[in-house]
Amino acid sequence: MRRHKCRLHDYHYYGENWVDKTTGQEFLKGYYDEEGNRYDALIIEKDGVKTSHFDCNYCGTATDETWTEGAIPHCPNCGALLIESNANIITDSIDNSMITEEYKESAEETSAISSGKNKVGCIVAAMVLFMPMITFFGVVFSIAMGFLGGNSNNPKYDQEYINQIDNNDPVISNNLELFGESFYVESIGRTVEFDYENGYYYDATSDCYFIYNTDSEPAAWQYWYEGISSDYGDYGWMEYELDEDTWYIESSYDNWIVLPSKYDTSRLWYMTGTQAGTSYTDDYNLVGMGEYIKVDSESAECYWDADHGAYNVSAHGCYIYVNFDAQKPVVQYWVDGISDNYCHDTYGGWLEYDYEQELWYVEDGNGTWIVLSDDESASLWHAQDHVTGAAGSVVMVK
Question: How far is CA 310 from CA 287, 303, 319, 376, 392, in A?
Fold first, then answer.
């Protein structure tokens, strides 16, 4: 998912069709505003330059196009029109800090997103959504967090509004469950509160909005510092890489650069210690477990396989990944020949064993966990007691 933050509306972009497991509602590929209206494209105009992301309906090419005049460009791969002439297109005209928004409502509307509040601000965010596991940990943004405010009453005490946030934005819901409406930030020595109007935690002293991205892999804290982030227009979200001791900022769509040296970083803070969660350059398995693991009392060292993004347990013909985003770390498995049958693009295929039910579950390509058939699970192996990392960390599997 990618979210575009604009002054009057938020637009969610979905790169493929999917079904919300909690409501059963189907989302089609494209852009949705907070009122549930769907659009084929979002075109942003700034200083006479138009930019937009397109997915060619004919050859499937994904492309980011920039143009100054004339019609929408053709596909650079096959030459087809990127958007049909009768397509419903949103246009945001941006003039420096002043944002005026105009869009055509589609003749056919969908209720995929329930009605929301008016939106404020103008932040555009984007991130690859790849979660082959159940999300959570005790710390955990596709740079696509959004402003969700605009209620005449105090939304903090509007339960209907809070439920709406929880239902429409899993990242916000996750953050509220993980950290609550307020929590003490150790690195700055003060308590921060969740700003329901904007949809983030906010520290007034540093003028910083921040939230934990549960949609990225690995999950990461991301920060919006006024005076720095605001220099990057529609982008500007920042991350601090603990492994590199370096600040990064998104300078354009999905383009992360080292924060330029002209900015004074002495006033910038970031999460440290256990509150930092998985905010690391490497996968948190490598950070938390080390280059190899051992299972139960077995002596074999199972090393990290970068191609699979998991530890290779060759003695049992599978790969192991520890999901640290769960409230209690969960061991997950990938078995070639079985997992592949449930994988769709980068989603699905991971297996979990439920010790209470004594059943195997698999995540299908829609992100739904289903019971694995007896025929497929009959020969599967799972850890019995614990997984120990080279770094000395131990994860209990039951």
Answer: 13, 8, 6, 21, 18
